[in-house]
Amino acid sequence: MNDEYQRGGLIKLFLSLKFISWLVLLSITARAEWQTIPSGRWKPANVPTGNSQGFHRLLPEVTGVRFTNVLSDEVAGQNQIRLNGSGVALGDVDGDGKVDIYLCRLEGPNALYRNLGQWKFEEVTEPAGVACNYQFSTGATFADVDGDGDLDLLVNSIGGGTRLFLNNGTGKFTEDTNSGLIRRFGAMSMALADIDGDGDLDLYVANYRVSTIRSTGLALLNTAGVRSIRPEDREQLEMTAEGRILERGEPDILYLNNGHGKFAAQSWTEGRFLDEEGLVLSVAPYDWGLSVAFRDINQDGFPDLYVCNDFHTPDRLWLNDGKGSFRAIARTALRNTSTFSMGIDFADINRDRWDDFIVLDMLSSSHRRRMMQNNGKEPQESSWGLSTNRPQFDRNVLQLNRGDGTYAETAYYAGVWATGWAWAPVFLDVDLDGFEDLLVTTGNQFDTQDMDAEARILAQGPWPKERLAKKLLQFPPLASRNVAFKNLGDGRFSDTSAAWNWNTDGVSQGVALADLDNDGDLDVVVNRLNDAVGLFRNEATAGRISVTLKGVGNNTQGIGARIRLVAGDFVQEQEMMAGGRYLSSDASMRVFATRSPPMNIEVRWPNGRWTEVISVSSNRVYELNENASVVQTQKPREPQSAKPESPIFVDASDRLRDRHVTPYFNELERQPLLSRHLAQEGPSVSWVDFDGDGWDDLLLGGALGGSLTVYSNKKGSEFKLLPMPAGELGLRDLGTVLGGGTRGQKAQIWASASSYRDHSAQGPRLVGGNADATMTMRIHQVDPSSTSTLAMADMDGDGVLDLFAGGRVIPGRYPEPASSHLYHRVGQQWVVSEPHEVIFKEIGLVTSAVWTDLNADGWPDLVLACEWGPLKVLMNQQGRLKDQTEAWGLTNHTGLWMAVASADFDGDGRMDLVAANTGLNTEYQASAEHPLRLYYGNLGGDGRLLTVESEWDEERGLEVPRRDLNALAAAWPELRERYTSHQAFGEASMKDLLAPVSGVVRVVEAKTLLSLVLLNRGDHFEAKPLPTEAQLAPAFGLTTGDFDGDGFSDIFVAQNF
Question: Comparing C-alpha atoms, which of 53, 112, 52, 68 is closest to residue 526?
Answer without folding.
Answer: 68
